[in-house]
Design goal:
The structure is a single chain. The chain is of the alpha/beta class. 44% of the residues lie in helices and 15% in strands. It has eight helices and seven strands; from the N terminus they run αβαβααβββαβαβαα. The protein has a five-stranded mixed beta sheet with strand order 1-3-2-6-7. Strands 4-5 form a two-stranded antiparallel sheet. Helix 4 runs parallel beside helix 7 and helix 7 crosses helix 8. The protein is globular, with a radius of gyration of 18 Å. The relative contact order is 0.13. About 7% of the residues have low confidence.
Length: 194
């Protein structure tokens, strides 16, 4: 009886492991299959995203970020979210304290940490969503259609991804993201406020 309980506990732990274990790169940041390794020239990244019919999303993270870990272990692995990102987004990860050069849409090239300061990034994770076209001379934050600083639950994250991808920010009317999210919570009607 004890052996069967131990065996069941071990089996449960082994089955849960892939969902709980987020791969870490050499830089200490979580890595997901849908993240792109680019030269971090945002003009080129936007062009490539458009060519694939996807939206460009910039994601700032940092080593040891417990909120990044929460997102990578509890939110991003959910099939509906991982699939939605994979199908609709071109994701470029940036390190809040990194030294890799990033070229902004305005042509300025700075290290990741200098760019984070220039853009006023204070929290990790921070997801910045770009439009399909960026005006010449604009910086990423000036062009962004939405910025999502911090960790959120599955519902909020999926709603933001959907709201941006469907370009609901450009629709006429009074349904901003918060109203859209509130409507989605009611439509899900699953007892969650997320």
């Amino acid at each position: 009886m004890i052996i069967s309980r131990i065996g069941a506990a071990v089996a449960a732990a082994v089955l849960a492991w892939p969902l709980a274990a987020a791969e870490l790169g050499d830089d200490g940041l979580h890595k997901a299959a849908w993240m792109r390794d680019t030269f971090k020239d945002l003009r080129e990244d936007l062009e490539e995203a458009r060519a694939e019919g996807k939206r460009l999303m910039l994601m700032f993270e940092q080593r040891g970020c417990i909120y990044c870990t929460k997102m990578h272990e509890e939110v991003f692995p959910a099939a509906e979210i991982a699939d939605y990102i994979e199908e609709n987004y071109f994701v470029v990860q940036l390190n809040l304290h990194g030294d890799i050069e990033v070229t902004d849409f305005d042509g300025e090239t700075l290290s990741e940490k200098q760019m984070a300061r220039k853009w006023g990034i204070l929290f990790t994770p921070t997801m910045m969503f770009l439009p399909p076209e960026v005006a010449e001379g604009a910086t990423a934050p000036q062009a962004a259609v939405a910025v999502m600083p911090g960790a959120f639950g599955k519902g909020t994250t999926l709603d933001m991804l959907t709201w941006v991808n469907e370009e609901r920010y450009a629709l006429e009317g009074a349904e901003d993201f918060q109203r859209y999210h509130a409507r989605m919570i009611q439509e899900r009607n699953n007892g969650s406020t997320d």
